[in-house]
Design goal:
With about 120 residues, this protein is α/β, with parallel strands linked by helices. Helix content is about 35%, strand content about 20%.
């Protein structure tokens, strides 16, 4: 798969990412199947958000791939934060809490990309 730079960063990734919004609706076995097939096709960027499945999508992803350092080095993780129940919260406190919670759910100590999440109306 063709590699591109992610935005203006130095991070290189495949030109296609896998959005993990509905991962919470899958069993670990089905999620592993989706992730493995994506990786076999050259996908290495996996897009998450703290609100996807109220955090469960990140948990299912990490459990499905049996996240550890070896697995983590083969992929790039992106997550988003800022959308709360009925409003946007880009406060430092919320961002730090959200990132810490995402790291726990993803069973890792870093993400490659963090975005402030905003729905367009």
């Amino acid at each position: 798969m063709k590699k591109i730079r992610l935005g203006t960063s130095e991070l290189e990734t495949g030109e296609i990412s896998l959005g993990c919004m509905r991962m919470s609706e899958l069993s670990n076995k089905d999620a592993a199947y989706v992730i493995e097939n994506a990786m076999d096709a050259g996908v290495d960027l996996f897009d998450h958000a703290d609100i996807y499945g109220k955090g469960k999508s990140e948990e299912v992803f990490a459990d499905a791939i049996q996240m550890n350092d070896d697995v983590g080095e083969k992929l790039k993780l992106q997550t988003k934060c800022g959308i709360r129940d009925g409003f946007f919260d880009f406060s430092q406190e919320h961002i730090l809490e959200s990132v810490d919670a995402s790291l726990r759910r993803l069973k890792t100590d870093y993400v490659d990309s963090l975005l402030l999440h905003r729905r367009m109306h």
